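ugh ok so i messed up the first submission bc i forgot one of the chains. this is the corrected input, ALL of the components this time, i swear. 619 residues overall. if the numbers dont match what u have on ur side tell me asap before i send this to the collaborators (the ones from the other lab, u know who)
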Amino acid sequence: MSPTRAAPTAPRPGPAAGPGTDPQRRPSAWRDRWYRFDVRYLPYLLIAPFFLLFAVFGLFPIVFNGIVALRTWRLDDPTLDGWAGGENFSRLLGDGDFWNALYNTFGIFLLSTVPQLLLALVVASLLNRKLRAQTWFRVGVLLPYITPVTASTLIFTVVFARDTGIANWALSLLGIGETEPIDWRASKWASWIAIATMVNWKWIGYNALLYLAAMQSIPRDVYEAAAVDGAGPWRQLWRITVPMIRPVVIFTVVLSTIGGLQLFTEPMLFEPNSAAATGGADGEWQTIAQLIYKVGWRDLNLGYAAAMSWALFLVILIVAAVNALITNRLGGGKR
Amino acid sequence: MGRAPQNMPGSFWNYLFLSVVIAFSAFPLYWMFVIATNTDEALAKIPPQVVPGGELATNLREVFSMQDVFFLQSLGNSVIVSSVVTASVLFFCSLAGFAFAKLRFKGRNALMIMVILTMTVPNQLGVVALYILMGYMPGEGGWNGTLLAVIVPGLVTAFGVFYMRQFILDAVPDELVEAARIDGATTIRIFWSVVVPAVRPAMAVLGLLTFVATWNEFQWPLITLGGTDYPTSMVALSDLASGNYVLYRRVLAGALVATLPLLVMLVIGGRQIVRGIMEGAVKS
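and heres the new structure output, hopefully the right one now
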């Protein structure tokens, strides 16, 4: 499992191996210098593009964000550019929109992450059998992953239409909302469920493949021993498989935390008038990422938007750490 | 009895459940096709229209001839952005991956750890500052609103470096690199004639994953290209879908066109994509 290996031995250019000492040719100083450059400095040149681009377009913006957050930075009036100190942050604490968005983000996050990972686990364990058309099934569960979120959200927008949507029609067959169809955009719960469905749809298959990969490297005799002891498939899944793939489970938990708390496209396009970025008439499903977009590029207040994104950053760090800790406990604590 | 799941043949329920999962995965795509091929009247019916109609050509013609959303040009932009980013990621990430896997230099391990750490930094959180930064880029009015703003930040990825390193570590024997070195080959020469031929499969996977991810990008292109006439196809789609009177048959016809290249990729390279994702998972 571990990629760790001994470091490759360096090709040490002994005096006889160097091209500059070829007896047929006169050792040229230029060739020598080129050789030294090639061996000693070229590696840095090869990795430089990554570090340069990351420094400029990845790291710098996040740090710079901290400075922007301490300034008044308006897109409509550049002359208002000045020091704000903690103003943006103190305003944040009293901003109902922010707390509402935080609440929504957590609600949708819980409704999407928990079922997503549990179902992915079940799907993975089903894929982890001797199956016919194995490749076909695996490629099939990956359909949502390659579908653009933009496209799938627009499809779900139609599926969750109040009067003509197929979701309400299907529910009415089950006797739900027969007299009064569910208005998926009218309440927090309904809109959260609709958006969480989109997120779950997109990520179950991808996570299942990650779990499947880990499951396949579990030694088979562990299961054989468990089966001899009388553990059924369900017990085997929870007592053997899950604890043994714990690193991948933690990885997916952290990954879906980072992704889930930054949810943007689904809440944006779930609304017919998406450009306003309000997330429902009353902000029923407005997430923080969406609010940052609204504050920054609709209300043109970049300084305040930067403060919000720093707050979100902190929230993500805390939640990801807590989640990783809990997952670690769950898998490790054998009671 | 005592058999590992990997050796157990799937039961009837196993197949049934998986088929339901596949149906659930494919349903929205099917539904997109149903709506994209129907008329307004058909879509207002209850119970809903469940079979494709014959109006696809009409709907597509409407999408491509709209007055305020230039869908064709936006598709072209998506092709440009995704191709350039993919080519660049393949080039720079295999070079860097090669350096990390097979070359010796001071600080190699520390730098590799930095690469891995950068994968956990959510770039999206810097969008406000990135937007301001783009405004300061050389050229009239900076890079916002131009394709450069979406291309340049994507030219290399930490995941790409990591992925290529893992693969080159296993796929290229050290002896081969040394032998080439003794024969007098330069580092670049070794890369070109020894490494590249050995890692073609990994490059295919990385290329597919990068293309899909770049094509599907929405938030940053919306911020920097939103409001311009020629954004990427994802932003153009959101333009199609916003307004007071949205025709969903038209929106989803556009979505169909923008999804099609990715479906084709999944059909051609599905096996490779699956393998790539699974390999990446075990090693990380």
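quick check: Residues 248-283 of chain B form the longest helix (36 residues). that seems consistent at least. Chain B has a mean pLDDT of 90.
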